[in-house]
Specification:
It is built from 11 helices and no strands. It has about 180 residues and is mostly helical. The protein is globular.
């Protein structure tokens, strides 16, 4: 599956453009993490893009989130390792991420929301003006971007052997590289 095909599949199931942008951001972050860990950049990016494709359909039943996506991805013939990463990322299933791609998606995708929130509070509303230091400061404020699960993100230290600061820096750079596509 190509990136273009993945986005087509996502748009069949997702109408909220901000959610699509979240998945594009997660794709860019996963590509950067693949580069860091020697993974297949295209596959990891696809996992990021596809991970929340069933979010709107399962919003009322979080236990079904990623279950529907798994079904859709199997029907589309997507590689099993991408499907597993998408499925495992929903922590409600209680599955421990095993592969580096699974661990990376599990720990990283939530942080994109915090980074976007940080961009939206700077005067320019641009990712270019967001600093790692300010993200880390906002990270410590639970009321800021309250929906972001900071506990999942902090698992980067154990699962990825990365400090929070390293993950924040990698994700910010990855998102800045596609800022125009994100509208930020």
């Amino acid at each position: 599956m190509t990136k273009s095909e993945a986005l087509q599949l996502v748009r069949q199931h997702v109408k909220n453009e901000n959610l699509v942008k979240h998945m594009i951001a997660a794709g860019a972050v996963m590509r950067a993490l693949a580069r860091k860990f020697g993974g297949d950049e295209d596959k990891w990016e696809l996992a990021g893009i596809l991970h929340d494709m069933d979010w709107e359909e399962t919003a009322d039943d979080f236990k079904m989130h990623s279950v529907k996506a798994k079904e859709y991805l199997q029907e589309a013939g997507v590689d099993a390792d991408i499907i597993n990463a998408v499925y495992v990322h929903n922590h409600i299933h209680g599955l421990e991420p095993v592969t580096m791609m699974e661990k990376a998606l599990y720990c990283s995708e939530e942080l994109t929301g915090l980074i976007v929130a940080c961009a939206l509070v700077v005067p320019s509303k641009k990712l270019a003006d967001v600093k790692v230091k300010s993200i880390l400061k906002k990270f410590k404020q639970p009321s800021f971007a309250a929906g972001v699960d900071r506990d999942l993100i902090q698992q980067c230290q154990e699962k990825l052997k990365m400090s929070l600061e390293e993950l924040v820096e990698l994700e910010l750079k990855a998102m800045q590289a596609i800022a125009e596509e994100l509208g930020l």
